[in-house]
Design brief:
Structural class of chain B: mainly alpha
Helix content of chain B: over 70%
Distance between the termini of chain A: 65 Å
CATH class of chain A: Mainly Alpha
Strand content of chain A: under 5%
Shape of chain B: globular
Number of domains of chain B: 1
Order of helices and strands of chain A: HHHHHH
Oligomer: heterodimer
Largest sheet of chain A: none
Number of helices of chain A: 6
Largest interface: A-B, 28 and 42 residues
Number of strands of chain A: 0
CATH topology of chain A: Four Helix Bundle (Hemerythrin (Met), subunit A)
Number of helices of chain B: 19
Structural class of chain A: mainly alpha
Largest sheet of chain B: 2 strands, antiparallel
Number of strands of chain B: 2
Radius of gyration of chain A: 20 Å
CATH superfamily of chain A: NADH-ubiquinone/plastoquinone oxidoreductase chain 6, subunit NuoJ
Distance between the termini of chain B: 32 Å
Helix content of chain A: over 70%
Radius of gyration of chain B: 21 Å
């Protein structure tokens, strides 16, 4: 089985394991800054998986926006709000309950996804960024415009709430 | 592939988008004491959009590759959303001008963005579009809930609403992505056809996906057990925002839910209908029982709106494996209930806004002896409360009647019985407010004074509640004609 694995499969499993372990530490870490840095591992690996699957545009956007912007924003948020970093327990005594819920969800989802898609093989074909651009401005132009209003609303609303009167 | 765009079909959305940008720009040039003009521009845009929607009546159009459809279902919802938008502007104008004066422009901008999302929602026939529309409805809602920046409760309202909203959206999106993985399509009709296959009817993956998607919408319509945010958010938000959330955001959730369940997943109805039965019973019972213990009028209306959502969910529960006639009737019953609920609940909130101008505590005790202070206002409130309780000949009676007969025809007599029992509990707390207003002596005999805009909104709403009660066929005439359910 392992011997028959192709290059993309090995790469996929490598990144998936890194993402999984890093994800565990994001939730488990007692220090917010460490959690944010582990998040870089999760989001970076997910971006790499997109690239392995041939979705280069989504992959690079994932790395640019999520790793480049969102994690930095998170760190800035921690810095500017002078939130306590480490030392303070950020969680409560519901850890075991949360663990059980998470494990059950994981097990359940793995089972149903395996049941339906197990054994399905997809042939990877890279999607060019130009194709995405074309379909975004023909097929999906309406959601695209709606998202632009959504982002404008979020921007304006955030300024109203954050500024000092 | 060349695509032709039918711009007439999206004219209502174009007018509303233009208006929301105009509000944002004009606001820059208005001095603080003239900010009220923003509401006038917003109102003009809403009325323009309403007119554009009227020009589309009778048409059946599909554009943007079938992603956006104009049919009688979409038009009925759009007309309702725009009417609600106009009324929300009327009931917010004075509150905002006296409260958060300098940020009024942004408030109307956010309000119109949310209504733009609702218009899109009514026409979306695609998972992607539904998701974007739902986000466009919710995101401005999170922001306006926190508009009383100095009030810790308002901050709490916004944060709670935001966290619950984001979580449930993520769950819903995951469900949609699984459905896409199975059907390789995001178009609702195509998904419905792909899932019609007998092997797909009880596939665990599909059942789980439907559960995730329903959870996302269940949050929107504040169905139990996704309702926790509603009372705290309504209580903390500015009162007009609570009115807006309890009506428009709930109706938008149902607009999406009806399309999903009856277009994309009708073949799985055997699986999801029992789930809806449990959800409907839990929602109405919990909402009504907790409402009994409330001392704050906004919290009471929040729990009452949860209970009302239960009645709207009930028709979904009777379609499990049912024939086309039952399905059509259930669809129409839920739709009619949403339309009627929107106007009667908005009316009750409009009266709360008036009383809130005098006393901002929003306690039910503030309503003692209101009859001797403001007889006209009290009479209007009695109309709305009795309608919510389902007393004939007001509109709310017919809403309950249609749902009740859908349950009976769907062979779900036990659901009809639970509904009647719940209506009796509802009647008790709605009437007890009425009794307080009429029978108890008032502490403070001073008049409250109803500003023109609020008075106009309340009079319009009373007319709607009474007129629909006298001519119940008005809504029922539209809904079964919906071309959405081609059963």
């Amino acid at each position: 089985m392992i011997l028959a694995a192709t290059g993309p499969e090995i790469a996929f499993w490598g990144f998936a394991v890194v993402a999984g372990i890093a994800g565990f530490f994001v939730v488990g870490s007692r220090n917010v800054v460490h959690a944010a840095l582990y998040l870089v591992g999760v989001l970076g690996s997910v971006g790499a998986i997109y690239i392995v699957l041939g979705a280069e545009f989504v992959g690079w956007v994932q790395i640019l926006i999520y790793v480049g912007a969102i994690v930095v924003l998170l760190l800035f948020g921690i810095m500017l709000t002078k939130a306590p970093i480490g030392g303070v327990a950020l969680d409560n005594n519901q850890r075991p309950v949360a663990f059980i819920v998470a494990a059950t969800t994981f097990g359940g989802l793995t089972w149903i996804i395996w049941r339906t898609f197990g054994g399905t093989r997809i042939r990877l074909s890279p999607t060019r960024t130009a194709q995405i651009g074309n379909s975004l401005f023909t097929h999906f132009v309406l959601p695209f415009e709606a998202v632009s209003v959504l982002l404008l609303a979020a921007l304006v609303g955030a300024i109203v709430l954050a500024r000092r009167d | 592939m060349p695509t032709t765009l039918d711009l007439h079909a999206v004219l209502p959305e174009i007018i509303l988008s233009g208006t929301l940008l105009a509000v944002l720009v004009v606001d820059l040039f208005l001095r603080d004491e003239r900010k009220l003009w923003n509401s006038v521009i917003a109102m003009a845009g809403v009325l323009g959009s309403f007119w554009a929607t009227l020009t589309l009546i009778g048409d059946h159009r599909a554009t943007f590759n079938g992603m956006f459809v104009v049919d009688s279902f979409a038009l009925l919802f759009k007309l309702m959303f725009l009417a609600v938008a106009a009324l929300v502007i009327l009931i917010s104008a004075n509150y905002l001008d006296e409260g958060v004066r300098s940020t009024q422009g942004e408030f109307y901008f956010l309000l119109l963005s949310s209504f733009l999302g609702m218009l899109l929602m009514a026409s979306s026939r695609d998972f992607l579009m539904l998701f974007v529309a739902l986000e466009l409805v919710s995101a401005p809602g999170f922001l306006v809930a926190g508009f009383k920046k100095r009030d810790a409760r308002s901050n709490e309202a916004a944060v709670k609403f935001f966290l619950f909203g984001v979580l449930s959206t993520a769950v819903m999106l995951f469900g949609m992505s699984l459905i896409y993985g199975v059907t390789k399509s995001t178009n609702l009709v195509a998904v419905g056809q792909a899932l019609a296959h007998p092997a797909a009817r009880s596939e665990p993956l599909i059942v789980a996906s439907i559960l995730f998607i329903v959870a996302g919408f269940g949050f929107k319509v504040s169905a139990v057990p996704f309702h926790f945010w509603a009372p705290d958010t309504y209580e903390g938000s500015p009162v007009p925002v609570a009115a807006f959330l309890s009506v428009a955001s709930k109706a938008a959730g149902f607009a999406g839910l009806l399309q999903l369940m009856f277009v994309a997943f009708p073949h799985q109805s055997n699986v999801w209908a029992p789930g809806f039965a449990i959800m409907a019973v839990a929602t109405m019972t919990l909402g009504n029982i907790v409402a009994l213990a409330q001392t704050n009028i906004v919290r009471l209306l929040a729990y009452s709106s949860i209970a009302q959502a239960g009645y709207m969910l009930l028709p979904f529960a009777v379609v499990g494996g049912a024939g086309p006639a039952v399905m059509r009737q259930a669809f129409a019953a839920s739709l009619t209930y949403i339309l009627i609920y929107s106007f009667m609940n908005l009316g009750a909130f409009a009266v709360v806004i008036v009383v809130n101008r005098k006393r901002s505590s929003n306690l039910i005790a503030d309503y003692d002896g209101l009859m001797s202070r403001e007889p006209g206002l009290t009479t209007a409130m009695l109309f709305f409360l009795l309608s919510l309780a389902g007393i004939p000949p007001l509109a709310g009676f017919w809403a309950k009647f249609f749902v009740f007969s859908a349950a009976i025809n769907g062979n779900a007599a036990w659901l009809a019985a639970v509904m009647v029992l719940n209506s009796v509990i509802g009647l008790y707390y709605y009437l007890s407010i009425g009794a307080r207003m009429v029978l108890r002596p008032a502490e403070d005999q001073s008049r409250i004074g109803v500003p023109f805009a609020l008075a106009a909104a309340i009079i319009l709403l009373v007319i709607i509640v009474v007129a629909v009660g006298v001519f119940p066929d008005f809504f029922n005439h539209f809904s079964p004609r919906s071309t959405l359910v081609a059963l």
